Amino acid sequence: MPSLFRAAAVALLAACAFVPAVQANVLVGGTRVILPAKDGEVTLRLTNDNDTPALVQAWIDTGDAKSTPDNVDTPFLITPPMFRMEPRRDQNLRILYTREPLPADRESLFWLNVLEVPPKPADRGADGNNYLQLALRSRLKLFFRPEGLQGDAQKAPAELAFHATGNALVVNNPTAFHVTLTDLVVEVGGKTVSVEGGMVSPKSELRLAATGLAGAPAGAVVRFNAINDFGAPSPFVGAIAP
């Protein structure tokens, strides 16, 4: 990538961090990406929902939100990595796995970045005033799913185990899949205790703050939504383990 564009992209990314309320015009077809190893690739649809063209750049990182296309190293290729999107048109992003080794007994998590750079206004500076131009970045989870994993991603939330430890809820995930929990509550003594959500990695534990959870007995009901492969919430019910 030309050094001048690289420097501009980095500066625009930094500006984006301070403008959370701006809405992107290039829409991504989904809230997450699942790449099955058996397929070796996945296609994602983008739509330019504006009346002006946009320059789009895409890359994948391992979790650093400050990443830029020139400093990432992941086993994936994106085609096209940079392109112009015409107004009211669609564009497919093709993500290919390069077959570099990844864990075979669990999913791996990466992040897909889609950076939108709008065109400069035709009348910029005509009245002598300064103007601000922003690049907008969408950032989606990308789950690489190896072949032959034990279990079912859609049923993985039902296998979570919950333990109350002081004012915290510890979630144990024995499965090979990532599970994202939202709307998490525990029923304690006739009251409902809200618990912050989060994502628990495969074969790992996640500790979630829950003020008022202290003293929750074994068997206390845990209700939550888990985000499925389509980005939609699915309801589940668990219980505090002894």
Automatic annotation (TrEMBL):
InterPro entries: Ig-like_fold, PapD-like_sf, Periplasmic_pilus_chap, Pili_assmbl_chap_C_dom_sf, Pili_assmbl_chaperone_bac, Pili_assmbl_chaperone_C, Pili_assmbl_chaperone_CS, Pili_assmbl_chaperone_N. Pfam families: PapD_C, PapD_N. Residues 1-24 form the signal peptide. Residues 27-149 form the Pili assembly chaperone N-terminal domain. SUPFAM superfamilies: PapD-like, Periplasmic chaperone C-domain. Keywords: Chaperone, Fimbrium biogenesis, Immunoglobulin domain, Periplasm, Signal. It is found in: Periplasm. Residues 171-233 form the Pili assembly chaperone C-terminal domain. Its main location: periplasm. It comes from the Bacteria. Belongs to the periplasmic pilus chaperone family. PANTHER family: FIMBRIAL CHAPERONE YADV-RELATED, PILUS ASSEMBLY CHAPERONE. This is Molecular chaperone. The lineage of its organism: Bacteria, Pseudomonadati, Pseudomonadota, Gammaproteobacteria, Lysobacterales.
